[in-house]
Amino acid sequence: MKTTISEVGKYVDQSVTIGAWLANKRSSGKIAFLQLRDGTGFIQGVVVKAEVEEDIFKLAKELTQESSLYVTGKVREDDRAPSGYELTVESVEVIQMAEDYPITPKEHGTEFLMDHRHLWLRSRKQHAIMKIRNEIIRATYEFFNEQGFTKIDPPILTGSSAEGTTNLFHTKYFDEDAYLSQSGQLYMEAAAMAFGKVFSFGPTFRAEKSKTRRHLIEFWMIEPEMAFMDHDESLVLQENYVSFVVQAVLQNCKLELKTLERDTATLEKISAPFPRISYDEAISFLQKEGYEIEWGEDFGAPHETAIAEAHEKPVFITNYPKDIKAFYMKPHPERDDVVLCADLIAPEGYGEIIGGSQRIDDAELMKQRYAEHNLSEDAYKWYLDLRKYGTVPHSGFGLGLERTVAWISGTEHVRETIPFPRLLNRLYP
C-alpha cells in the first residue's frame, strides 16, 4: 500500500510504501534510525539488522542526507514519536543517492541559509512555518466564504499609487508608466460596489529601503472591502477574523507549533473582542512611559511593542491624525484632525498586522483630497466615479500575511515566513 507520512495512522500494523527523502540518520550497532520526510511530515524508520536482508541493512547504513527513496515498512504506534507513529523498515529502494548536501545538522549562518533557501525549506522548522502559513491561508478562505464574501483579484500592474506615496517600483508599460501594486485596495472598493463584500489575496510591493525584521520588499496581503459597513462594524469583522485564524492554527497545526517550540498559552487567549485605544490615549500612555513622542507623529516598532505589552490580546489603535494617513480615509464626524481608521497591533512585539479604515464616500471631499495630495484627477477618475454613481458608506482593511505568520508561529524575522523572501539586498534564489 503506497501512502504518505501524514496518512500512516490509517495503516497501523500494516506494511506501507512511502516515497521520501532522508533528512538525517544515526545508527547504533545493529539498528539504523532513518529520519524520513515526504513533504507531508516526518517519521522515523527503524532498520533492525536481524529483521532485514543483509544488503538492505548495508544500504541503510550507507544512505546520505537528502537521498531520495522508496521505503517499505510496517506502521507502529509510538507515543514517543512526535507524530505518534514509527516505521519498522522492511526494504529500501534508492531513487537517487545525494552527494555533499550543503545544509548539514551543524549550525549555519543566516546568509548561508538564505543563499540556500531552496534547500533550507526542507528543514523541520521551515517546513512547520510554511505549514502554518498554509493553514492561515486556508482558514482565511473558509472565514470569508462563510461570511458571504466574493474573492476578486486586483491587478498587480497599476497606473497609479494606492497610498499616494513614492515608494513604488516603476516599470514601462509599453509607452506608459506603470507600477507594481502596493495594495489592491482601490480596485477592491470598485469590486465592493459590484459584489457587496469582497476580498483579495495577492502579492504587494514596497520599494522601501528597510532592513528591519518586520519588512519585506514583496509580501502578500489579504484585503477585504465591504459596502454598507461602517468603521466600528469593520473592527468587529477584523477581530473575529483574526480570532478564527488563530484558533484554526491551534486546532490544525499542533505538531508544527510543537516543532517550533511555540508557547501556545498566549495564542489560546486570542478571542474577540480585542481592546481598543485611541491614538490620543496611545500618545499619552507612551509619554507616561518615558517615550519622546508628540501628537501627530507616527508610531515606530518600540512604540507599538510598548503598547502591545500592556495588553494580552491584539490591540486596536484608532483615529490617527489625518496628516499621517492615506488620502482616502473618512474624517471623524466630530473632529477634522483625525480619521476613522485603526491599526491592529499583535502581541509579543510583532507590530502592526492590520491597517484599515472607513473610506471617504463623498465625491466633493474626495476631489479636495486629490488636490491636497497632488493626485492626478485623470489617473484617479475611475476611483472618483465610485462616489458619483451610487456611493455608500464602506470600509476595508489589509492584513499582512507574513507578519501574521511570524506572530502566530513565533518566528522572529519575516524572511522565514515566505518561501522565497525579497529583501533589500536579496533577489536570489
Automatic annotation (TrEMBL):
Any Gene Ontology biological process: asparaginyl-tRNA aminoacylation
Domain Aminoacyl-transfer RNA synthetases class-II family profile: 130-429
Listed EC numbers: 6.1.1.22
Record keyword ATP-binding present: yes
Keyword annotations from UniProtKB, A to Z: Aminoacyl-tRNA synthetase, ATP-binding, Cytoplasm, Ligase, Nucleotide-binding, Protein biosynthesis
SUPFAM superfamilies in alphabetical order: Class II aaRS and biotin synthetases, Nucleic acid-binding proteins
Record localization: Cytoplasm
NCBIfam families documented for this protein: asnS, PRK03932.1, PRK05159.1
Protein name per its UniProtKB record: Asparagine--tRNA ligase
Organism annotation: Bacillus selenitireducens (strain ATCC 700615 / DSM 15326 / MLS10)
